[in-house]
Amino acid sequence: MSNRIAKLQKRQQKKRVNQNQLYQNSLKQAFVKLNPKIMIKNPVMFLVWVGTIITALLTLDPALFGTVPGENQRFFNGLVTLILFLTVLFANFAEAVAEGRGKAQADSLRATKSDTIAKRVLDNGRIEEISSTQLRKGDQVKVVAGELIPADGEVLSGVASVDESAITGESAPVLKEPGSDMASSVTGGTKVISDELIIRVTSDPGKGFIDRMIALVEGASRTKTPNEIALTVLLAVLTQVFLIVVVTLPFYANYIQSPVGVVTLISLLVALIPTTIGGLLSAIGIAGMDRVAQFNVVATSGRAVEACGDINTLILDKTGTITLGNRLAEEFIPVNSHSTQDIAKAALAASVFDTTPEGKSIVKLASNLGANVDFEQTQAEGIDFSARTRMSGTDLPNGVQYRKGAVEAIKGFVRSRGGQVPLDLDEAYGKVSRLGGTPLAVALNNDIYGVIYLKDIIKPGIRERFEQLRRMGVKSVMLTGDNRITASVIATEAGVDDFIAEATPEDKIAVIQQEQQQGKLVAMTGDGTNDAPALAQANVGVAMNSGTQAAKEAANMVDLDSDPTKLIDLVTIGKQLLITRGALTTFSLANDIAKYFAIIPAMFASVGIGKLNIMALTSSQSAILSALIYNALIIPALIPLALRGVEFRPLSANQLLVRNILLYGLGGIIAPFIGIKIIDLIITGIGWA
Amino acid sequence: MKQSSPNSEKLELLLDFLQYLKTRHPLSLLLFLGLVSNLIFAPAIYAATGTDIPQKTAYALGLLGLVTVALSIYLFFVIFQPEKF
Fold first, then answer.
1. Residues with Cβ within 8 Å of residue A435, at least 6 apart in sequence
2. Does A239 touch chain B (CB under 8 A)?
3. Do A233 and B79 touch (CB under 8 A)?
4. Among this protein's residues, is A317 annotated catalytic?
5. What's the pTM value of the predicted model, to 2 decimals?
């Protein structure tokens, strides 16, 4: 017990140390980012930075631009300079903290990517030991138990357990073997823990999966998303408008004989331009990518994360997403006056080469019923399942053919060999379908023996998730190779909006294109090579890490945990990113009202607009300082919200709009009135103005 | 053989220097041109305000005006080419 507590304390201490280190490094980076070449990338903060330099000059020489009425000009200018400098520094700090979190993740990934000695298999079969950096695409390498896999690749031969915890965090080893879509791709940096593999390298050094992940989480390949570009334009337009307004003010001020100093004008400009969102904009974007990475998903761009938030249609495979991945054989239903023993034997013979979980469960059920194989397996030929034939089986050298597969496919198979479809087949098929199970027919040559009932189990909680998606206006479409009756039973139970039964891979692309033609954004998951075109066609394509290299290349996100249900979480993260940006923009703009009422009456107090001083601020100097201090402090105060994201609720677009306008719009109007008044009281209390 | 005058040599040297600045230190060149153009603006401001302000203030106001115009041009760049920022 005490050992566990000590471990927990140690972990918490380590986390605190890491957090402290992150803040220390971010503070350092905040100063590094004061470099004008970096500052110029953020238009709003660049203006504050230029303003800081001008007010600093005015601190040294308050009469630089002519004499201005007022006492303690140098002290006042110095305070304004300090506040403006802190405003820039806080904005840089927010960005640095967000970047720092990504870098920490990249460092932990980099730790897995050390140069290893690779055993390259030469053409003559000999093995040559070289550095992993010398490996090229197409090379073959041998990896034995205890060694790290030197590069990304496809398994050519061998069966081995691989520890992928370095990239997925999942400690259970994964079985890797050739030929299978699911288990044949391996990632560089993962470790073989038993047996050995011969792997064909599929990426050149520096272009592997982990390299791409590092570049992404570090922000090296970060480009502005369309949404960020649109917001940057809006902020620049607002800044331009306020700049023009402020520049024209001195002429009116001189006309009414109430001259205004340059420091006051700069203060007004900084208070009016949207510094809050300008300072937090890039931090929100980086944090969004970071949140996706924390979910163990690697996005190829921020654009993909943002697109998740705009998704209208989700296309989901039934198996693994809506139902638990492994359907298991539950029962054999004999037809055509065959016995259960007969169908068990035929099903076993048709499944001996089937390595899928379904195939293995059929073998197990048949064996439990006492069935055994009565032919030489080495002489027989396994017929793989394909999406086109929709059946698999075994061919014996004497011409006997065992088949199992979709009922319609088996009917066609039997008819093509001159057989008859038994009348009780449809009854058995209907029985299984009505139970929401998958019926597989079993045939020996032209005789149908019966139906295997594969039981599907709907994932717990999935119905609620679809309900949430519906409330957010996202339509869910289930794709399945099952017949219509089974598909409709599962669709109703799971609560999806639509389903496509007896679907082929081409149907996926057709559905995506159909939805896109109606102006909708579509997201889908996939893992096989035949999913690659659909993954590329979808606006958001999420490939499973256990899937093929082709699927991973075509998708714009890769899920390291290979959990297709995560697509629903990604939609939530995308929406949260967009809502956070919208909420902080609303808050930032709403803040202007209070700052306006603080500074304008202070500027023109001498011409009798004192009634506008509704906050009853003590003096013009204290009003300006209060507005600027509030403006600076609100940035660090909102950093946690920018990094964590606004709390997400599954509401419709209209409900969300009303909620955010009330919370961040109305809140953005009221909060600064209170904040500025409190700061004014403190400033007056300590005698700064 | 044509002989170049000492003045044209000086001009060539100056142009070479400006070319060097343009390629290697574009920001320095901009600052230099800004200060040079202020030699035109500052006397104009001084003349417009009569003797109300000292000459130093006229130069400072000239530079402040140039900085403001430069910021406005920069913001237009951001508005029309936001992907670069």
1. A453, A455, A489
2. yes
3. yes
4. yes
5. 0.71
